[in-house]
Amino acid sequence: MTLVQLKKAAQNRFAEHGYDGTSMAHIAEDVGIKKQSIYTYFKGKDELFLEVFGNVAANEWASAKEFIESHQSLPVDKFLYEFLMHHKDRFEQNTDTKFWLRISFFPPAHLYDEVMEKVYTYLDELEKLIQPILRKAVEEGVLSANINTKRATVAFLGVLDSVFVEMLYGGPERLEKRLDASWHFYWRGVSKD
């Protein structure tokens, strides 16, 4: 057993069952070790959880940043829509994203501040990267000259949040319905035409 395997097993358990539904015994069982062996690496469940969450937060940020940097030359409507789809695809294929979303919406009460500090940093940094793209689209006449790009960015993140909620709770049909309606009215509200 390696430390990497231990953290991956913990991440999978936390993603599927949340903090409260995961025990050190379950994690140990998944790795094929005795529970006491985990304490060689971590003082307890909180320390293991926070390390795994920190790694996942870094991975989610790297993925979002890489997407933004490599796709910002797309027309703004395609860029924004593809950004939503990027998150949908990651949720369907990546346990990091499942864990990130579950814990972002339902952090353990006693670790709330530590978790939400990373969540809010992520959202604030997204806002800083997306707003200049919208500002440029306004300058190019693609978006309405009357929009406030800061508010338009925050509203877009609201669309992203609604997609996250359906990913967690609604299933594929509800997600498609929410994504289609949210995107349609968001784009109508900010586009020039």
UniProtKB/TrEMBL annotation:
Keywords: DNA-binding. Residues 23-42 bind DNA. It comes from the Bacteria. Residues 1-60 form the HTH tetR-type domain. The keyword Cell membrane does not apply. It holds the Pfam family TetR_N. GO terms for molecular function: DNA binding. GO terms for biological process: regulation of DNA-templated transcription. The keyword Methyltransferase does not apply. PANTHER family: HTH-TYPE TRANSCRIPTIONAL REPRESSOR SCO4008 (PTHR30328:SF54), TRANSCRIPTIONAL REPRESSOR (PTHR30328). This is TetR family transcriptional regulator. It comes from Planomicrobium soli.
